[in-house]
Design a protein that fits this description.
It is a single chain. The protein is 25% helix and 33% strand. The chain has seven helices and 19 strands. The strands form three sheets. It has an eight-stranded mixed sheet with strand order 1-2-3-8-7-6-5-4, with helices on one face. It has a five-stranded mixed β-barrel with strand order 9-10-17-13-12, surrounded by five helices. The protein has a three-stranded antiparallel sheet with strand order 14-16-15.
């Protein structure tokens, strides 16, 4: 059975997840992903939607193409696969949704972001899907600044109030055109789903246990905008961090709204957040990466 290490957890899995780093062989698992029976609905749910039921420390996902996923106590993900679902379908929803629920159950803060290591500290790039988070992270990795995690900033707050980013995926998810522009050969990459030309591309990855969070960068694309970066006011930073708190509805449904609100407030108050605006066209990922490095006060490696 594969054994992985990400976001500070050793995870055993019935599924192979190519983009997750391997754990040290023989490590004791903190969490398990396994195939098994999952009920149609969650008994004792405090919130129910068409796609999920939630109760304290439990979440049941109903995802038509893949099946049902039961996530419990920050330790277990049980998958009841739909007829015809491929391992790729199951992995896609474990990575994008089920694991997020498990991490929320462990009281970790999740932001929809890609995270890079600059000057020994974590800088996270956040915003909506398509904002260029993964592409910018890959461009920074090409300049010698390794990726800590792609698509999700997972962090914990220590007793002093400092947030620490926990390393995650060892690959970056790129559309084929972005991979080509950055010089990655998709022939050697893992295609994430058959119906999409999106690949998990190997880049320089920061291992280790955790890194203090130094800065956030909100990526904004706007028609006709000039390329630029500027500090965000704290209230605006909080609003955007709350908006892009990853799978926030899951945490709220499980009764954890107050804890998430406190953590997002503390992150907005304790970490500088920049707003990086770029035009929809006529720019390169390298230009965006240079702005991030300039804001971080670091020169690219030569």
């Amino acid at each position: 059975m594969p054994l992985y290490f990400l976001h500070g957890l050793t995870v055993s899995s019935d599924l192979t997840v190519a983009e997750w780093p391997a754990a040290v062989p023989g490590s004791a698992p903190d969490a398990h992903i396994r195939l098994g029976a999952v009920p149609l609905a969650l008994e004792g749910a405090r919130e129910t939607t068409e796609m999920w039921d939630a109760a304290p420390r439990r979440l049941l996902l109903r995802i038509a193409p893949a099946g049902r996923f039961l996530i419990s106590d920050g330790q277990d993900i049980v998958i009841d696969a739909a007829q015809g679902a491929t391992d790729g379908d199951l992995v896609a929803f474990v990575v994008s949704s089920a694991l997020a629920a498990l991490l929320h159950q462990r009281a970790l803060l999740l932001i929809h972001a890609s995270v890079v290591l600059i000057g020994g500290r974590a800088v996270f790039l956040f915003g909506p899907s398509g904002a260029g988070k993964s592409t910018t992270a890959a461009a920074l990795a090409a300049r010698g600044f390794p990726v800590i995690s792609d698509d999700q900033l997972v962090c914990r707050r220590d007793a002093s109030g400092t947030f620490h980013a926990l390393p995650g995926t060892s690959r970056v998810r790129l559309w084929s055109d972005a991979a080509d522009a950055l010089g990655h050969d998709t022939a050697d990459a893992v295609r994430l789903r058959t119906a999409e030309a999106k690949y998990a591309v190997t880049v320089d990855h920061a291992g280790g246990i955790s890194y203090p969070v130094a800065m956030g960068v909100r990526l904004i694309q706007r028609q006709g905008a000039a390329l630029g970066i500027a500090p965000m006011p704290r209230v605006a930073a909080f609003e955007d961090l709350w908006t892009y708190c990853f799978r926030r509805r899951y945490a709220i449904g499980m009764g954890d709204r107050a804890r998430v609100f406190r953590d997002v407030s503390a992150l907005a108050a304790g970490v500088p957040v920049m707003s990086l605006t770029r035009p929809v066209e006529r720019f390169t990922a390298g230009e965006v990466a240079d702005l991030v490095l300039s804001a971080a006060g670091t020169q690219a490696h030569v």
